[in-house]
Give the backbone structure.
Amino acid sequence: MADRLLEVYREAKRIKADGRLLESTRLARVAELDDQLLEVCAARWLDEDTSGDEVENDYRRLCNEVVRLMLNQELFVFVTAVEADGTNNAAERQLRDDATARKTGRTSKTPQGAKRRSVISSVLQSIGKQLPEFTLESVIAEVQRWMEVGKSCFADTVHQLGLGPPQTAPDIDAKSLLDRVILSADS
């Protein structure tokens, strides 16, 4: 399954990189990619049996998430959106300092402290990508704008791309992903 999903992703990257394609052609190719994903995931997506082992349930949840994103048209946004890259390489490079700090012990010693540091660092680095000039003054002005308007620049971007808020599968904890990853690692 993983190999097949990787093939579909690589095909999506090829479509994205092909500057000769019209938008209508890209949309048609995305529909073909959607069909390929359904081929890969349909059997497990329709399966509601949760009695399998941990690996089987992870596979079922992965299929559910892939199909959910596909049905919400959130999976191949990078193919049709000009400004989307299709990878998280830039974000990964930006977060390397935080990862290094965690590895060398220069970070919080509690799960709550690690979560706080991760949230603050991620928000600041993400804001830096949104603002024309990344200064303390511009960050404060942006946060004040959020408070006045009632939504962040990130919510504006999600709205501009026509994406909705992430949906959670019914069998996933109500806790945020960050809580599930960081706080469960210490358990």
